[in-house]
């Protein structure tokens, strides 16, 4: 797959360059982004009474986007995209994504730079509100404390890395599209050649469909990702692979759907995440189900997520986590939205140790601004 992607990338890039125009307006960067600020009232149940959890919290998240593009005389579009984390809780002041792309209506889009894997853009259960389930906006665990002993997979299509990558997204053909990406090393190291084989690499592919049948909308996707662990002589490798599938059906403002993901580790002896952030890499599976309704400026959804993971290979049971979110939203005006969620989280450790379990409820409300 890696060789096919690189060869295809070279062919597409050659085609882009060969047909490039000599004169076009220069790229001008535009500014965009979002900010969400919420307040929360929560109730955590610590069975061992070892932690005194607070009942009130205030959290926020925000990003600024810098993006621009120019359309050449031959129809090709060349653009850049950068994302800056602007809240301290999300490593404020750091660049999240930074990439360049070339696209056309007939050949698709080729992206080089820091960009997410196509696996991360699979169809998931519908959701709205202040707390997202299975996406990195606000996890339930931001408000319901997550015991460190309990391992979980955070979602069916959550990104695992935004390192320098090669990515291709095809045009849509009768509703079908294809995407693939390859990351040579996941350490965000832009200096020197990757010739020591001591860094992780990964690739992913996805097929998606979007169509409408007499008012009934259908969205579906199937994805696969492979992570190759660092090849260090004398050490065990923990190569991982994952696949996911999702389906949404919508009609008259209603959307019903869900998704499933399976993760496998070749050498399941990891003490911590094999890949930092996003989707945990442990032997296990995760699924989500949801229903939403949107009418005018109002939206409501009920979403459920469950993760089961082999946390300790010496134990035949699994770490189990469930999230529930009843969310609502109201569009106050262009780019301004009131959001709220009633959430529940339940963490069950496979050892059944009392100190490693927690569950709780939370009521979260706030404002999200997009610009």
Characterization of the model:
- This protein has 1 helix and 16 strands.
- It has 371 residues and is mostly beta strands.
- It has a 16-stranded antiparallel β-barrel with strand order 1-2-3-4-5-6-7-8-9-10-11-12-13-14-15-16.
- The chain is globular and about 65 Å long.
- It starts with a helix and ends with a strand.
- The beta-strand count equals 16
Radius of gyration: 22 Å
Query: Looking across the biggest beta sheet, what order are the strands in?
Result: 1-2-3-4-5-6-7-8-9-10-11-12-13-14-15-16
Give the oligomer, counting copies of the same chain as homo and different chains as hetero.
Answer: single chain
| SSE string | HEEEEEEEEEEEEEEEE
Structural class, from helix and strand content?
mainly beta
What percentage of the residues does DSSP assign to strands (E)?
over 45%
Q: Look at the structure and give the mean pLDDT.
A: 82
Shape: globular
User: What is the rounded distance between the termini?
Assistant: 38 Å
- Please count the helical segments: 1
Query: What proportion of the residues is helical, as a percent range?
Result: under 10%
Biggest beta sheet summary: 16 strands, antiparallel, barrel
> What low-confidence regions span 5 or more consecutive residues with pLDDT below 50?
194-198, 269-278
